Amino acid sequence: MNASRFFRPSYAAARAAFREAAAARGLTIHTHGNPTAGAKGEDLTTDVALLGPQDARRLMIVLSGTHGAEGFCGSGIQVGWLSGNEPLPADTAILMIHAINPYGFSHVRRVTEDNVDLNRNFVDHGNAKPENPGYEQLRDFICPKEWTDESERRNLAALHAYAQVHGMDALETAVASGQYVDPQGVFYGGTQPTWSNRTLRAILSPFAARVTHSAFIDLHTGIGPYGFGEIMSNHAARDPGHRVMQQWWGGEATYFDDGTSSSYYVVGDTQIAVNQSLPNAHNAGITLEYGTIPDKRDMMNAVRADNWLYAHGGGDTGTPKGRAIKARIRAAFYPEQDDWKEMVVERGHYVMKRMLRCLGES
Ligand SMILES: [Zn+2]
What we know:
Strand content: 15-25%
Order of helices and strands: HEEEHEHHHHHEEHEHEHHH
Helix content: 40-55%
Number of domains: 1
Bound molecules: zinc ion
Structural class: alpha/beta
């Protein structure tokens, strides 16, 4: 297999590849326009294609680019699948959603145009938000106003000292579990449903009346061994989807509640949009998370640097410092080597095929 041909080096090229692959299958493409512009001024859209019958009762949903910079990977998996010819089980369809956060994909950022971490945005905004006292305590070190080698040494020393006292898990929770107090900070969940949130719900809502069973795959990168895709259950142990995940994957998937998942605890994720948009269905989903660079801390620090660039550094204006920061975040979420792409596509195909079979039998 030559998987590299499914990947593209920019959002605009990835979007074109997805649309071409869908058109080659004779699929109709629905387009949702984002109100902002891309890094090179291009139009930003989320593109959607349905494989299989419109009125299928079983629906597999495959989502790319929740965290924009991770969309290179997700797009490659989607284009690869569309370029193959796997048969569908009876009464089953696949909904391919390409680049749900097109701003982040184009600008190579995790966040949306309003600095929101989409995977922390699906909380009930009318009620009290989850608190993150660790973030509030460490805020000036996590998201400093200046970014130099020297300031970064001081900030990392402060974060390290916190981990020494409270543990590494506590530091990761403080930085990455989500926060709702600092609109200029990292992993910010927002104050209202952002464009990508509303768009995802609008894409799913036409299926609410018919779908009785859904299987959801949200494609991510940044955590875990190079090229390996961890199958992270999206469900807490008390959630009905948990039992489904155990039936479908058993110990091959990882779970937050028993400590097997490599992810930090997440609130407000995309699975909530699926559950709420398909309220009459049995919904079960995973986050398929691919490893990129060896050390998770380097990924976090790449995100912190990128946050500084846009919050305090004037954005990506082509300065040497800005270019170095953009290269760093790109590498943290998209390694671009051929062997990585092969592993990503092969595993993605396996996971999708298995989910599809399980869904077809449910
Ligand atoms: Zn992600």
